[in-house]
Amino acid sequence: MRDRNLTLILIRSARKALAAAVAGVALALAAGALIGAPAANAAQPPRNIIILFADGAAPTQWDFGRHSSKVLRGQPFVTTDIVFRQGTLGLLSTHPSNGYVTDSAAAGSAMSTGYKVNNGAVAITPDGKPVPTVMEVARARGKRIGLVTTATVYDATPAAFSLHAKLRWQYQALVDQYLALEPEVLMGGGADYFLPAGAPGGKRKDGKDVIAAFRAKGYQVVRNTAELNAATGAKVLGLFADTDMDFELDRDPARQPTTAEMTAAALKALSQSSPNGFVLLVENENIDTAGHANDAASLMRALWAFDDAVTVALDFQRHSPDTLLIVTGDHESGGFSPTEALRDLSKVSWENRFNPGEEQLRMLARITMSLNRVKEKLGRKPSGEVLDKLLAEHFPGFTLDPDLRELILRQQTREHNFTYLPHNHLGRMVARQTGYYWGTSGHTSQPVVVGAIGPGAELFHGYQDNTEFGKHLHRLILRD
After folding, report:
1. Whether residue 176 sits in one domain with residue 52
2. Annotated active-site positions, please?
3. What pLDDT, on a 0 to 100 scale, did the predictor assign at position 38?
4. How many angstroms separate the CA atoms of 57 and 183, rounded?
5. Does the residue 318 lie in any domain?
6. pLDDT of the residue at 480
7. What is the total count of domains within the chain?
8. Are 265 and 217 in the same domain?
9. Other C-beta atoms within 10 Å of 234: how many?
10. What are the phi and psi torsion angles at 199 (to 5°)?
């Protein structure tokens, strides 16, 4: 990848860009190259900022991504092996203003605005004040802005980094704010609140077609992978699902692009006509959703998909060293805890115990359906026959114990902190046979990791509150 022209990189298809980037990152790792050393760039603010956001990821998830990528993909996990190892590394506390365990809206708002808010609020403080978001500050400084997610584009994280709402569920109003803000790039799911009720998949109650309104403002609208890869415009609206985009296990690659493909397309669009640079947020929400569902197989593939996007962004940063690249998350989801476990309950002595190893990891790799999709297939009244067929076809080698089977068919939970049904029971089935256990179906209070490479990276060193993350971003943008 020596001496490649950046323009050529950006106009290639996302798939080719990812393959080239993987090779380059592997070479950099092998050579021990320190990319974008923060100390050398401390005096210069970044022209561009790329925030790669793994919703629901904390240290345990990152190391699971590293371990599984090494064993099953035979390739480095660049998030840990380059960004965390060679860049600036820090930790962020995550609590909201009204408790100890955060939701995504409160965490995202703190990281976007520098202010604590209540759970459920989007960039509005407890006294009712809207406070400036990262994307609003960037827009005021003349920067181009972009938001990419595997969730709905109006979901908590992209909304918190750009918009305002008393409650995160005010979806129609959030979409209207996007139309007013006009981010140059907006990609993910959530076509439902862009279309009027009565249109296929539409849920708006005011009869408006907001997709048409974006198109009238000069946006290139893309609805599938081929259209995305062919996009050439400087302003792109990509809506690839009515609601959330699918897990990797379920994703139709013709309809829904990867996180890496969306990242490459976003960088291509934002780099056009960009005298003041840009700020881009790329979120993989599936890491969080897999945590809620206690779905270790989907978590593994979501981490890989996110890491592929980090690879694309690292390649861009290598050719544009005035870019600050940040990898982080907002909170931990699921209490993920791979651990030593008993093979059965016959005895507790050491000979009846096992640790998760390569055999158990390969069992995860053989799973071919997300637990979300299993729930869809089972429907509102699960039947034993359908359940047995799904497990035989998509969970080879796994046995569902009678206690879990009964809970699934009765649609009952077994603990106060497990509320995703039947996901959590199937997650426990997987855990009993692999050692990949979970402590909850909700969020936890774990600190999250932040890794940064490029100008300004040194600000993110050490243990800080998540509001400091937002304050650092504002300072860096305002210094430009």
Report:
1. yes
2. 104
3. 39
4. 26
5. yes
6. 66
7. 2
8. yes
9. 18
10. -75, 150
Is there a single domain that holds both residue 450 and residue 352? no
Token couple for 29: 């790792």
Are residues 357 and 286 located together in one domain of the fold? no
76 and 202 share one domain: yes
CA distance 164 to 159: 7
- Return the structure tokens found at 240: 């690839």
In the DSSP assignment, the letter for residue 350 is G
Q: Say whether 472 sits in a helix, a strand or coil.
A: helix
Per DSSP bridges, beta strands 185-189 and 144-152 are: parallel
Is-contact 209 199, C-beta < 8 A? yes
* Residue 432 CA, distance from chain mean position: 27
Whether this prediction's pTM lies above 0.85 is answered by: yes
The long-range contacts involving 100-104, CB below 8 angstroms and separated by at least 24 positions, are 100/445, 101/331, 101/442, 101/443, 101/444, 101/445, 102/330, 102/331, 102/443, 103/156, 103/168, 103/331, 103/443, 104/55, 104/155, 104/156, 104/157, 104/160, 104/168, 104/288, 104/330, 104/331
Q: Quick check: helix, strand or coil at residue 90?
A: strand
**SS3 state of residue 204:** strand
For residue 448, being part of any structural domain is answered with yes
Look up the domain containing 461 and give its range.
6-335+443-479
- CA 462, 465, 468, 469 torsion-angle sign: positive
Structure confidence at residue 273 (pLDDT): 84
How does pLDDT run across 316-327, given as a tens digit for each residue?
999 999 999 999
